[in-house]
Design a protein that fits this description.
336 residues, alpha/beta, 8-stranded parallel β-barrel, two-stranded antiparallel sheet, 11 helices, 15% strand
């Protein structure tokens, strides 16, 4: 059946500029890291993308290696673009990345000019597009001059294969240097994509928040639900069908007694606010002015709809924010 997007898709979603640029993104964006690979159900993917776009989520985030198998998320998204979203291409912001391992040999990962630009060409072919809206360096390469990696991003933009440049997993100092180089190259730099959640405060500690303010780029945050732990999913044990049970990106050893106590306390606070824990966790990340958008993942449309309710949250009171800090105090961050 032909897909016709909902006429109401722009009525409730807030949009915010990425730093000081003209690019505006929805408060919630959809990441395709999980559940869009070759092992996943195509009809479910289709239903999720339709649900997201109908709700005003116009930003879809990919990377060359998303799957499994690597590349299959881009291939599936490309099929769905052709089937459903071709008439809406100019309404969409589509991003992809290069930097993590994708193919064998010295050019299959990291940030050399050859690796970056070859990866972009492959991504465009899989997506069936002439350009992406944002092309990211997926991680800082300690063995390649930053001038070379940023030069590759600028080349992608100047060639018309990308409209904006982004970086991901760069700390504050690295981001400042990247911003300076891209400015000299007259390349529009819009976003740093980094992990951030109630339980993961690395961007508060590595200078990235201040760098975003000073340099005028936006932040788009992933893993706001702490790999699913900031939900009610693990309050009463580890479900058999969960990511933790499969030991997929989330080890069962992460759910310590202290962590469970914290999650339980946060869940009680969320209930007092009239929210689910997931909705409160999303609202907590979105409260910061530096954050342009928050990336959510989903395995079914109902999860997207549930996450969207975070946008209706009442502002946090000073007392609520203090209580969150007290709950989280003393627990080592997940990434350490």
């Amino acid at each position: 059946m032909e897909y016709l997007a909902a006429d109401t898709r722009y009525q409730t979603m807030p949009y915010q500029r990425a730093g000081k640029t003209g690019l505006r993104l929805p408060a919630l964006s959809l990441g395709l890291w999980h559940n869009f690979g070759s092992v996943d159900n195509f009809d479910t993917m289709r239903a999720m993308l339709r649900c997201a776009f109908d709700a005003g989520i116009i930003h879809f985030d990919l990377a060359n290696n998303y799957g499994p198998v690597p590349g299959s998320a881009e291939e599936n998204f490309g099929r769905l673009l052709a089937l459903d979203f071709k008439p809406y291409r100019d309404e969409l912001c589509i991003s992809t990345k290069a930097g993590y391992h994708m193919w064998e040999g010295p050019y299959g990962e990291w940030g050399s000019r050859k690796a970056m630009l070859a990866s972009l060409d492959q991504s465009l072919q899989r997506l069936g597009l002439d350009y992406v809206d944002i092309f990211y360096s997926h991680r800082f390469d300690p063995d390649t001059p930053l001038e070379e990696t940023m030069g590759a991003l600028a080349a992608a933009v100047h060639s018309g294969k990308a409209l904006y440049a982004g970086i991901s997993n760069y700390d504050g100092e690295q981001s400042r240097k990247a911003a300076s180089l891209l400015r000299d190259l007259h390349c529009p730099f819009v976003l740093n994509q980094s992990r951030y959640s109630i339980m993961d405060r690395r961007i508060e500690e590595n200078g990235l928040l201040q760098a975003a303010q000073d340099e005028g780029f936006g932040l788009i945050c992933f893993s706001p639900l702490f790999q699913g732990m900031l939900t009610n999913r693990y309050l009463h044990g580890v479900p058999e069908d969960s990511r933790m049970a499969r030991e997929a990106f989330l080890k069962s050893s992460a759910l310590t007694e202290q962590r469970l106590t914290q999650i339980t306390a946060l869940n009680e606070l969320a209930q007092q606010r009239g929210q689910s824990l997931a909705q409160m966790a999303l609202a907590w990340v979105l409260r910061r002015d530096e954050v342009t958008s928050v990336l959510i993942g989903a395995s079914r449309p109902a999860q997207i709809l549930d996450n969207l309710r975070a946008l209706n949250a009442a502002p946090f009171t000073t007392q609520e924010l203090q209580k969150i800090e007290i709950i989280c105090a003393g627990q080592p961050a997940f990434w350490r």
